[in-house]
Amino acid sequence: MRSEKSNSAPLGLKIAAAAGLAFMHLPILLIFLYAFTTEEKSYQFPPPGLTTQWFAVAWNRPDVWAALTLSVKVASIATAAALVLGTLCAAAVSQTRFFGREAVSLLVILPIALPGIITGIALRSAFSIADIPFSFWTIMLGHATFCIVVVYNNAVARFRRISGSLIEASMDLGADGFQTFRYVILPNIATALLAGGMLAFALSFDEVIVTTFTAGQQSTLPIWMLEELIRPRQRPVTNVVAMVVVIVTFLPILGAYYLTRDGDQIAGAGK
Amino acid sequence: QEPLKELGKGEGELSIVTWPGYIERGETDKNYDWVTDFEKKTGCKISVKTAATSDEMVALMNEGGFDLVTASGDASLRLVAGKRVQPINTDLIPSWKTIDERMQNAPWHTVDGVHYGTPYVWGPNVLMYNTEAFKNEPPTSWKVVFEEMTLPDGKSNKGRVQAYDGPIHVADAANYLMAHKPDLGIKDPYELNEDQYKAALDLLRVQRTLVGRYWHDAMIQIDDFKNEGVVASGSWPFQVNLMRSEKQPISSIIPEEGVTGWADTTMLHADSEHPNCAYMWMEHTLSPKVQGDVSAWFGANPSVGAACKGNELLTDEGCATNGYNDFEKVKFWKTPVTKCSQGECVPYHRWVSDYIGVIGGR
Amino acid sequence: MTTAVLFDNVSRHFGIVRAVDRVNLSIAEGEFFAMLGPSGSGKTTCLRLMAGFEQPTGGHIEIFGETAEGVPPYRRSVNTVFQDYALFPHLSILDNVAYGLMVKGIGREERRKAAEDALAMVKLPGYGTRRPGQLSGGQRQRVALARALVNKPKVLLLDEPLGALDLKLREQMQEELKSLQKSLGITFVFVTHDQGEALSMADRIAVFNDGRIQQLGSPEDVYNRPKTRFVADFVGSSNVLSADLCRRLGLKAAFASLRPEAVAIAPPHNGALSLSGTVASQSFLGATNRIVVDVEGARIAVASPATQGFPPIGSAVTISFAARDLYPMDDA
Amino acid sequence: MTTAVLFDNVSRHFGIVRAVDRVNLSIAEGEFFAMLGPSGSGKTTCLRLMAGFEQPTGGHIEIFGETAEGVPPYRRSVNTVFQDYALFPHLSILDNVAYGLMVKGIGREERRKAAEDALAMVKLPGYGTRRPGQLSGGQRQRVALARALVNKPKVLLLDEPLGALDLKLREQMQEELKSLQKSLGITFVFVTHDQGEALSMADRIAVFNDGRIQQLGSPEDVYNRPKTRFVADFVGSSNVLSADLCRRLGLKAAFASLRPEAVAIAPPHNGALSLSGTVASQSFLGATNRIVVDVEGARIAVASPATQGFPPIGSAVTISFAARDLYPMDDA
Amino acid sequence: MTILAERVILPERRSTAGRLSDFFWRHPHVLLALLLGPPLLWLGVVYLGSLFALLLQSFFSIDDFSGLINYEFTLATYRQLLSDTHLDIIIRTVSMAAIVTFVSALIAFPIAYYAARYARGKWKALFYLAVMLPLWSSYLVKIYAWKLILAKEGILTWFFEKLNLLWLLEAWLTLPVVGGNSLSVSYTGTFIVFVYVWMPFMILPIQAALERVPANLIEASWDLGGTPAQTFRYVLFPLALPGIVAGSIFTFSLTLGDYIIPQIVGSSRLFIGQAVYAQQGTAGNIPLAAAFTVVPIVIMGAYLWMAKRMGAFDAL
Ligand SMILES: Nc1ncnc2c1ncn2[C@@H]1O[C@H](COP(=O)(O)OP(=O)(O)OP(=O)(O)O)[C@@H](O)[C@H]1O
Ligand SMILES: Nc1ncnc2c1ncn2[C@@H]1O[C@H](COP(=O)(O)OP(=O)(O)OP(=O)(O)O)[C@@H](O)[C@H]1O
Ligand SMILES: NCCCCNCCCN
Ligand SMILES: [Mg+2]
Ligand SMILES: [Mg+2]
Fold first, then answer.
1. B–E contact (≥3 CB pairs within 8 Å)?
2. Which of A269, B166, C174, E93 is deepest in the core (most CB within 10 A)?
3. Are A25 and A144 members of one domain?
4. Are residues A223 and A201 in the same domain?
5. Residues 6 or more apart in contact with residue D191 via CB below 8 angstroms
6. Domain residues for A28?
7. Chain D within 8 Å of E222 (Cβ-Cβ)?
8. Which overall architecture, per CATH, does domain C238-328 show?
9. pLDDT band at B327 (very low <50, low <70, confident <90, very high)
10. Which residue's CA is the closest to the ligand 1 atom numbered 2?
11. Does the keyword Transport apply (chain E) (predicted)?
């Protein structure tokens, strides 16, 4: 029984935590605020006036839609690839012992532990050595590489929680390997995979650095934003898009939380 | 490599590496659009990749996947040497004959009498300044960005000036020294011996103490003038025009020391997959209309004299304003090489690393 | 009588760990067979060898006369009740119980009925729609039992199924299990480290230590006639008398065991043996008092009826016991 | 005699849950005090109130005569041995034991010596450099004990310290704890839900149920003279005789308790009471046999010496017991 | 109950799945190979292969004039990497990464601690969302928001002015190293944005580590006389350390490699990420870019090795 249930936090801690959270959130509010400013070219503070016109403008910009479509496609396929690879890897690492197991878990973490620019530049130079032209698939490859770990972490945490005897119980009751996978393993890791998949999606959706190196001339949403922020036409449109994206990516994150909250943390959620 | 023999049908696509503001399709101001019509006429869909420095352009061309590049003088010869661009067949470009003679055989695109592109536009790197800070005493010398001084508004220039974030800026320092330290014997700001080079770097180190952030991107420079209290900097007429159009208190001059400048050439990639569209584009860009429009928008000068007259956007005074007649005062960008008129000069790669060092505080 | 499980010199070594070492045993059909031993003595490993989760590294296993090596668990008509129950958390109780039938391809309606019957048998009718998380420990244990029994296994393996339950519940489940086994006639192999449990439930007991069987026999055999000092020590809290003491009592043996409840604090009557010593300590155990008597350095525990009260600590007493309760043992 | 801990009408409610409800108790200095009760009955909460981890929502607590409310745990000379030991996993055994001295600012050398002495006292000399993860359950338990004792607390609180140990180890630790308490003279407050443990170790026992003390007295009191049906049921496996049966035996009471070991399967001798019934079930428990006799629907358990053997199931038997073993109880 | 097994050992299954299942059961190594094959092919061959190919390039050099790579083995690029200019960049970046990591941990800890130890039920969910919201808001837009805040004529100045505290800001800006013309062109600004953007990556692992600290260890410390401060120092902090290390893998590595933040908010002094980006993209000097990437690889390699030993991976 935790004593904290009845005790409340010391005041100093409350203040520090609240200040920290405020630090994290005020700039976000600003992003939202400037989605409504009437000023188009530069950001003035305080904004001279408020308007909702940018939502309509953003809606009617074909470049926004093109970038959005590409980002959604990349994130979906990268997530799918990460789901398959991450799950396979998690299954191998958590269900069996083999020489080099530690090395594999290190290898999976490497793409997020190394700065994105390294992943990006390495893949880019590999593409150029192998004479692979930039395409949708080169972006996807880069994204899936660092998304694997998100799925892997979630799946491994869940695999650890499925007691080994559950799988043995299934076999004991007459289920062969495939039946055991279908009826016991899959239902038990499903929510973890869903959570991992959602985080992978959100991660891919916001990736700038790796994309810069693997996209060639294609624009994903973050690349579009970078371009827009540096060479603005209608600056508030960028904020509108950012705000909508925050709100939209937020739903899967919320979902992931509720799917995994009892038990494993959202492993590798950051990233 | 043999140039193209005859013009065929357009391939439907064309990708161009260029400076920001060089190729407009009316997105910022619908009056400035020299792409839409071209696309309609030729069916060549244009995609534009902007680059902030010449080095970036060279890197993009080395990487491949582009058809054309509007290379400045400090990039063009490197591209030729690296065999990244191909000679062009001037016969396939009817307007070739209309080109300003000063540009037609310019050394930055002509090697052994072979042309590696069509001139686009040229212009000076002007001194842009904030008219409120300078009140009624506009600057006359690059001194304001090289040495600490009190500006007419009574405050120091420290932290309020900028310089270009590209190694070629060393030439601006050399240009300044040419006027102020004649005993160094600098004849050409792109050809510096060790002593001259050292003096230029020393000057740049002084400049570092004045500069908060170097400008790398035209748009970010505009932001800095608006939000960061920057009041003077070397710049392109493009930024000046853009800010003036936004009613910012901005003006520019060509200081007494003269200026560096750029003269850009549209060059065709050695492995271009859309050479026909490329040739069509080169021809298109040489029309007085496009030349005038680009010059008006960017604050540059046309390579086709006819553009100076009768262009609605440029107006008849435009060429004079943009320095069309100052051609002689402009020391055009070119790549510093070891072999030079002084015998041995400091090559470009040292400019690159030393300039990074100077900005880094070394 | 058919032999349900036969271990012929079976070993299972993990590297240098001899989890199971040259074990011979033969369990008869319908028998309630208990495996008793301290932690790490190889009980679970034996069970896993029967279930097919482990393969022997030596020896031979037969189940109802058929070779078991190389047969995966899902092809053995042997079911297990796991120590932690291993109920499928994502399935309802009914689906848990019907699982074995489902993977065998039995139709939905039929398996529902069979599962409900099984739940009724373990006295959980109507619990089918719940989830395992909504049941108490004892209830889960019964679901695990039903889930195994619904498959009509020839052999049911139970790995410390009552280990996690508290005393009251445990006693109740012991009775239920025992009567279920009687009525179904299935062979039960039951693992426990609780001697009381093994004694009260099993037909025969194998006492394990260090991967080997120390003694195999009926509860009375094991309790009253321990073959080794280890068994004497482990099964009930026996007194182990040294060779010295044995000699003085006229017994030729390296060691002898003497159950506390066979000793009385009283002068010897007809033919009884006796020793004298001083009371070293005592404690009240409810039904009995435990009095430890120091006999020339050897400590002999006496279980005397609580009604007799405590002699004062340090007082001199005589203890007596029948010669037949002194049981000689082979080895240390 | 000094009062070590005093609870004056102490309550601790969590919302509507009355974890501890108007409890009065007074524990004497040097006493071995046990709190016994089923899960959720409030034992741990009582302990936490003494340690200072909880504050009472009503009533008053004194420790050695001083008001305890509002005094944080780290300012009470009361130490706790946690149920799961709560050893610091990142510290060596020695540093674990020396922790209390370190935070008090005792010098390195001095606390090392004190910690080593404490480890020797719990028979773990030389284990100082290990980590908690490298010890067995019983060893960890002893480290937890040493860690508490090194601070020389006035009161030592033990929350089911033996719950996780297996039977043998548990018996051994019971003895060690008991003798340690005797030699140190520290007041022990010991929580358990194992009646045997409470009976054998404690000077006095408080039996808890639903946050209240049901009975407080010596082990004999609690075992032989349960005041409520709950106590009779919980402490040992007593038979509870209904009013009906009581009346037939000439006793005017709502209920009466009768210990199985007070009953014999034999015709009554002088002045003994007797009932007749049939044998319903039986099991071998080692030292005794447990025989359940059905007396007109009421089931009465009899603990008979194993030496007497089993009467056949279903056979008619007469059971007899002394009138004084029939203990009337107040309420249901 | 219908099934009555005739035999105790059931016959082999004849379906493909059944036979395959038997096969895998007898040959678990084949199954393992099938599981590990695809991810290893992807990560071990494609990803690691690319990394090695990149590293290989660092042993080539570049022709200064044409910008083309000279495919001959040389250490010249590493000599170049160790020049003063480039060492400055490395030191600057590593120091920034270290300070950012330290301060991130400092700010993150109370948040994580509160979330792990005190927040319950709805509050816990709220805390989680409050951490995730900034984490998943567009990274670029956040940086630009900071540019607005930190600019000389930005929001912070506006606030300081309103509060009559402008002198304080100006005093700070006159300090050596951390100062500058405005916050947005100073190390202070770069630092603030780095901390802001990466700090959420620190919170979650710390929270995870703290949640794994059994509550009774803290009570045990109190019980033994440890004051709250001592309990933090001797129990809580050491046990949360693996979480901090796990979080610092992110903050450290992300700072080492980022090139967008210091370019948008900074003083034009390069960081490793910018140098790599510039060498690769602007200068086309792939060998030097590759040599630069060796620095974070070596640092992170050592870091990961240490983290693994501390058990930080469990907190990732
Ligand atoms: N997979 C394995 N790898 C290595 N050693 C093992 C393995 N399984 C069991 N062992 C070892 O074999 C020995 C016997 O283990 P087993 O689980 O059979 O004991 P047990 O009698 O069931 O003990 P408990 O009462 O603690 O469950 C132990 O020393 C154990 O550590
Ligand atoms: N912090 C708390 N918040 C709410 N309810 C609590 C809290 N602590 C204890 N309780 C409740 O108070 C009651 C008594 O709990 P306590 O832990 O004291 O029981 P216990 O006798 O120690 O049980 P066990 O033998 O299971 O340890 C239980 O119903 C429990 O759920
Ligand atoms: N929330 C997105 C932050 C961007 C960081 N991406 C890191 C990816 C590392 N390869
Ligand atoms: Mg076991
Ligand atoms: Mg408790």
1. yes
2. A269
3. no
4. yes
5. D34, D35, D43, D44, D46, D47, D157, D158, D159, D160
6. 11-51
7. yes
8. Beta Barrel (2.40)
9. confident
10. C14
11. yes
